[in-house]
Design goal:
The protein is an alpha+beta fold. It has 2 domains: about 100 residues, Alpha-Beta Plaits; about 90 residues, 2-Layer Sandwich (Alpha-Beta Plaits). The chain is built from 4 helices and 11 strands; from the N terminus they run βββαβαββββαβββα. The strands form 2 sheets. Strands 1, 2, 3, 4, 7, 8, 9, 10 and 11 form a 9-stranded mixed sheet that branches. A two-stranded antiparallel ribbon has the order 5-6. Strand 2 and strand 3 form a beta hairpin.
Length: about 190
């Protein structure tokens, strides 16, 4: 049976198990041999990372061809208007390629942990939180998308990957959950969680 681990990656932790420069990595938090991240989460982003020891599951969760939905909570500079949200939803051009359509909505500030260090605070520049639901995962995509519509990302937390969510996990915590045994079981799980 495959192993499946949900990990809340803290800010400034690499989404890999080794680093020649001595930065914090997954190895500092997840002492489980043989598991690897199914996809990446940037060094300066926080939130859900799914790890598994099953190659087929790692591939299915990380390969953009499978269009696995991912949900991000994004704190941005200033308050986006409806036009900016519409542009995000329709897709923006990043490095010559348009992003896939996304679902985006304003949200209240989520009840999340304090970040260490905290985001930069500017007295006269308000911030807003967005829930952004993507079915692709290009390098630094969320940050590039919000910047393209004039609202730089200040804080980025991945809240869900497919049917799995952060739940009550605090930064640095992980939990092992039942894993689908084969691709059909994953498809059923995805359908049940819609």
């Amino acid at each position: 049976m495959p192993r499946l681990i949900l990990f809340n990656k803290p800010y400034h932790v690499l989404c890999q198990f080794t680093d020649a420069d001595g930065r914090a990595t997954l190895a500092d938090f997840v002492p489980v041999p043989g598991v690897y991240p199914a996809g990446r989460l940037d060094y300066d982003s926080e939130g859900l990372v799914v790890l598994t020891d099953a190659g087929w599951l790692q591939h299915r969760l990380s390969d953009p061809r499978h269009k696995l939905p991912k949900t991000y909570w994004v704190q941005v500079e200033r308050i986006p208007d409806d036009a900016a949200l519409q542009r995000l939803a329709e897709g923006v051009v990043i490095r010559g390629r348009r992003t896939r359509p996304a679902r985006v909505e304003r949200m209240e500030a989520p009840a999340v942990w304090e970040r260490d260090p905290p985001i930069r605070y500017r007295k006269h520049v308000p911030t807003a939180w967005l829930a952004l639901h993507l079915r692709e995962g290009r390098n630094r995509q969320v940050r590039r998308m919000t910047a393209a519509v004039g609202h730089p990302t200040l804080r980025l937390i991945r809240q869900a990957v497919g049917p799995w969510t952060l739940g009550d996990l605090r930064p640095g915590q992980w939990i092992e959950v039942p894993a689908p045994a084969h691709p059909d079981a994953l498809a059923r799980l995805m359908h049940e969680r819609r």
